[in-house]
Amino acid sequence: MNGTIPAPTIEYGMLAPMLVVFGAAIVGVLVEAFAPRYLRSAIHLPITLLSLLISFVLIVWQWVEGVPTKAAAMGAIAVDGPAMFIWGTILVLAFVSVLLIKDEGHFVGAAAAVPGSAEEEQALYEGAAHTEVYPLVLFAVGGMMLFPAANDLLIAFVGLEVMSLPLYLLCGLARRRRLLSQEAAMKYFLLGAFSSAFFLYGTAMIYGYANSLDLAEIGASLGVVGGQDMLLYIGGAMIGVGLLFKIGAAPFQAWKPDVYQGAPTPITALMASGTLIAAFGALLRVFWVALGGLDWNWRPVFYGVAILTMLGGAIFAITQTDIKRMLAYSSIAHGGFLLIGVIATGSAPAQNTSALSGILFYLVAYGFTTVGAFAVVTMVRDAGGEAWHLSRWAGLGKRSPLLAGVFAFFLLAFAGIPLTSGFFGKYAVFQAAVTGGALPLVIVGAVASAVAAFFYVRVIVLMFFSDPAADGPSVVLPSRGTAAVVGLAALATVVLGVFPQPVLDLAHSAAQSLFVR
Amino acid sequence: MTTHYLVLSALLFAIGGVGVLVRRNAIVVFMCVELMLNACNLAFVTFARQNGSLDGQVIAFFVMIVAAAEVVIGLAIIVTIFRTRRSASVDDASLLKH
Amino acid sequence: MEAAEIASITQHSGGAIGAAWLMIALPLVGAAVLLLGGRRTDKFGHLLGVLMAVASFVVAALAFVQLLGFAPGERRRGVSLFEFIPGLVDKVGLLVDPLSISFCLLITGVGSLIHVYSIGYMAHDPNRRRFFAYLNLFVAAMLLLVLADNYLALFVGWEGVGLASYLLIGFWQHKPSAATAAKKAFIVNRVGDVGLLIAMFTIFATFHSLTFSGVLDRAGDASQGTLTAIGLLLLVGACGKSAQLPLQSWLLDAMEGPTPVSALIHAATMVTAGVYLIVRSGPIFEGTGTAQLVVTIVGVATLLAGAIIGTAKDDIKKALAGSTMSQIGYMVLAAGVGPAGYAFAIAHLITHGFFKADMFLGAGSVMHAMNDEVDMRKYGGLRKVMPITFATFLVGYLAIIGFPLLSGYFTKDGIIETAMEHSAVLGWLAVLGAGITGFYMSRLVFMTFFGKKRWDAKAHPHESPAVMTVPLLLLSIGSIALGAYLILGNRFMIFLSPAVGAPEHLPEFHPFSAPGLATLALVAIGAAFAWLRYGAAEVPATAPRGSFLTTFARRDLYGDALNEALFMRPGQWLTRLAVFFDNRGVDGLVNGLAASIGGSSGRLRRVQTGFVRSYALSIFVGAAVLVGAWFVVGNL
């Protein structure tokens, strides 16, 4: 049978949640092409929200039917417990972020127009809007789903790019502070492309070593192939670079504050929650399924990276004067805490399950809180748009106690105060790490948390115990969408902090099946 | 021997990497990234040859497609920033810092 | 006397017991709606508050009925709610057993009546809605306190009632005295709470659990010394909440709150939480004679102190507050005796809940009629203008002094008999206390309802509306009949035994025992003396100077002065010292550390240059380091 290629079998049912999102994105592109300008956003919004909803329902349905234990599409995409949990989380958070995105005024009317030019005036006058935002977001969300489910390094690379490319564009679409936004887009793009080149080179090395890109086959080839350790080491480390870049782990964290600050805040919210979750899913899968047999090598390296990330994130955050940069550094520090969970995975299945379920819970908890926090940032504005400088937030508690109270609550959740979701997230991860023998890391984590708590509390003190500036920012009356986002995030933060058990159970049963190997 | 091709690939990758670090023009920086991707392609094809499987060559096509998509996005971003600033120097765009 | 076994807990779901969480949830929802709803709920706020309390009562009653359907050995039903921090409290659940359900019925029953009464009493207050919200909050917290199946949830309820009490004492915060009283109650209660907290730490360190089943079933495993420590710490908590010596001083000031609050929280329910804690933790106290001895001593000392304070107060509510202290002293005394006393302690607690609430509400009715005058020297002869209030108050009065066949007679006599059996000294002191009770309560009644009018010209006393008198009537029915029902034939002791155990021999009721007769005689003498001084004779409109003994009692036995001298002044010194050290030492260290972290942060952030090429460099170098590290580690 030389020369004939067997037709691949593709389990469309298992992939349906992802296909729905990608399908809707393509429909969105067609809408851009054919629908009249004034109708576009009215068409996009329901399509976007509905597709996310349907996708979520499909996942729930599949979950109830029974989690598959075999990778789909000829072993290229693994739809297993953790992947489905991550999908569900990303979809919910994307849905929430779209509610934030749909608000007027976050995105530029004509991105190509030079800021301050007559062209821009004209676009403003005409009320032009980039409705491409919706399909771009859907593509990004599709990529976020593909990335952690990829059971093949090539698919992982494709997923990585599909997730990142739309985000590069979206970062440059902020309505205000155009220069910052464009700069953020360029930095994110150049550095992202740079890091994915590392990922790809690593992939090539691994391919040279194992003669396959299938994660399971790579895992099986470890220790079988002899004399090629150089390829393996370079490959593993470089894939690590690509993944750690997306997480924002030190020393690959430099892009995060700049990009988070310059991007439109709703997009920042999407990146801070969705990208982080997807990247952690992919990191866990690659390093557990493919390179699990090599943990003797990567665990010490990650040890150092985690310590550097936690301490770096916390210490850098202290002197930040910009709320979005501060939240970005906070996100870096949280990435470090999550890395503790990655290191806590071990050889015993029970240990793996507890570490994995801890990470999954942490991701859910952090995702909701961070979206809520950025949603609050969108509401505090002054003449030049959102008021980012912390000094402008002084005395906010006196002007609008409710909003400041909710924001303070989010900050406490970031700090991991009991009765907030952040506490149980940290608790679950740290506990898994202690039983996994990573006590020193937990101690560093606790120290970093203490340092981090300082700057969270500093903001709270600033909001409630300082006198408001005379020309301080005003809090805009939130649209229904934004109000829903803040409310939902606050609710999730409370519920996960008081009744964490249902979600912990869910994460546990997702982690029970572990990754398909 | 395929080793030569691998060394060449590594050299190209390194040249690309260093180029990203030393060049100022955003377009050139971006071309250096493309050079790195193509170094990867060379490695893939070499390994395909070495291991006697076709996978590597197929992967190279995938990478080309992704790179093409990246070019579209990248050029769009760089052109916009050039129009705004009348400069394509990556060092000029440094408002976001500290 | 050997205790009967405490029944083990049966897991339960379904029915009213399974829905026991509703008891807590309903008033909690009420409070949330009223507090969050703001002025929009002003119109129906009071009705919602009453509805929630009554609904809670209905659930309690149904649960009670369902509980009676089980065999006595299976009447401890555990209802698990949700899983919590593993290891500490694995599952948060409720425990519905004879002890907790008795409390539930008392709290929701008397609570509902007081809610109804408050509609009338607070009718003219602009913040009535807020008042009802706090009352509902209190009921929810109190129910959590008694229904919890572990010390942690109990503590949450314990703090919740403290909060509600604080809010309600200071309800009229525009009065500085009320605000101060609220703060005082809060601070004194904190002292007790710290005791309870440390007790919980010790319990967890000893038993590795905070659930009642995990702790109390294994109480025998701990050493005598540990049990004594836990017992004494629990007692500190109980003293704070129940206004027992030496943490009694807040209760008299707490009377600044609206009278329904005094009736519900500071007479019928919250202040009895300490008794509940001691009885619930029975196995701990039974394992340590020392702690039990201290409990009984505290009980007797407080019952005498409260009674003495009651004799000298002209403020009707403060006189009643002294009496509350004293009666809770009786309960604590009985609880300290062990299984023989538990049933009497709780029975007295329940009957006291009725007759004291009855009298407080009666006093409230009088104040309502007299323009909020509280000085009894300005009352007199009110029995004619307020017949219903007078009649119901009279019932409460007769019940508390232990008039034969009324509630207090049976329950207090039970306590005295049990104490006598335990130790003659304690017994006779309790008898003496009963005699003083006869005096000060008679004094109160005579000064208020008998004699000549001594009102201001402006006062136009009148009977209160039905919404206030009907609860009074219902409470007085309880004050008459409940004691006989509970005590005769040891009905309550048998009912309670699965939860707290029972003595080997059930006590018999002797109507004509020596202590019983002595009590009656002393009470009669006290009442007669009061009649001579305050009934037959003229009551001066201003208080005479009196002897040093009177002053002693008027000044609350110098409790406040003692606190000031012993705690406040040294406390102030200590604070100054601490501030000094804090500024010089601790702050220096902390600030230094913060400054060094902040400084390094300030320097480090310069690394973030804003140049994309420098970021790329960090990635490049980072990648090189990472690859290098892999090789280093791989070749180790």
From TrEMBL, chain A:
Role of this protein: NDH-1 shuttles electrons from NADH, via FMN and iron-sulfur (Fe-S) centers, to quinones in the respiratory chain. The immediate electron acceptor for the enzyme in this species is believed to be a menaquinone. Couples the redox reaction to proton translocation (for every two electrons transferred, four hydrogen ions are translocated across the cytoplasmic membrane), and thus conserves the redox energy in a proton gradient.
Domain NADH:quinone oxidoreductase/Mrp antiporter transmembrane: start-end pairs: 150-450
Organism: Sphaerimonospora thailandensis
Annotated membrane topology: Multi-pass membrane protein
Family, per entry: Belongs to the complex I subunit 2 family.
Protein name: NADH-quinone oxidoreductase subunit N
Source domain of life: Bacteria
TM helices/strands, residue ranges: 12-31, 43-64, 84-101, 133-150, 156-176, 188-210, 230-255, 267-288, 300-319, 326-347, 359-380, 401-419, 439-465, 477-499
Automatic annotation (TrEMBL), chain B:
TM stretches of this protein: 6-22, 27-47, 59-82
Membrane-topology descriptor: Multi-pass membrane protein
Disulfide bond as UniProt keyword: no
InterPro entries, sorted: NADH_UbQ_OxRdtase_chain4L/K (IPR001133), NUOK/Mnh_C1-like (IPR039428)
Subcellular location as annotated: Cell membrane; Membrane
Entry keyword Cell membrane: yes
Chief localization: membrane
Keywords carried by this UniProt record: Cell membrane, Membrane, NAD, Quinone, Translocase, Transmembrane, Transmembrane helix, Transport
GO molecular function: NADH dehydrogenase (quinone) (non-electrogenic) activity; quinone binding
GO cellular component term, pick one: plasma membrane
One family name in Pfam for this protein: Oxidored_q2
Catalytic activity, reaction form: a quinone + NADH + 5 H(+)(in) = a quinol + NAD(+) + 4 H(+)(out)
GO biological process, one term: ATP synthesis coupled electron transport
EC number: 7.1.1.-
Enzyme class: translocase
Gene3D superfamilies tied to this protein: 1.10.287.3510
Binding partners and assembly: NDH-1 is composed of 14 different subunits. Subunits NuoA, H, J, K, L, M, N constitute the membrane sector of the complex.
UniProt function note: NDH-1 shuttles electrons from NADH, via FMN and iron-sulfur (Fe-S) centers, to quinones in the respiratory chain. The immediate electron acceptor for the enzyme in this species is believed to be a menaquinone. Couples the redox reaction to proton translocation (for every two electrons transferred, four hydrogen ions are translocated across the cytoplasmic membrane), and thus conserves the redox energy in a proton gradient.
The family this protein is said to belong to: Belongs to the complex I subunit 4L family.
Name this polypeptide is given: NADH-quinone oxidoreductase subunit K
Annotated gene: nuoK
Automatic annotation (TrEMBL), chain C:
Gene Ontology CC annotation, any one: membrane
Keyword field contains Transmembrane: yes
Family annotation (Pfam families): Proton_antipo_M, Proton_antipo_N
Residue ranges crossing the lipid bilayer per the database entry: 16-36, 48-71, 99-119, 131-148, 194-216, 222-240, 261-279, 291-312, 385-406, 426-446, 466-488, 512-532, 615-633
Lineage: superkingdom: Bacteria
Record's bilayer topology term: Multi-pass membrane protein
NADH-Ubiquinone oxidoreductase (complex I) chain 5 N-terminal domain segment(s): 91-132
A biological-process GO annotation: electron transport coupled proton transport
Protein keywords: Membrane, Transmembrane, Transmembrane helix
Location in the cell: Endomembrane system; Membrane
GO molecular function, a single term: NADH dehydrogenase activity
NADH:quinone oxidoreductase/Mrp antiporter transmembrane domain boundaries: 148-437
NCBIfam families according to UniProt: NDH_I_L (TIGR01974), PRK06590.1 (NF005141)
Name of the protein in its database record: NADH-quinone oxidoreductase subunit L
Biological source species: Sphaerimonospora thailandensis
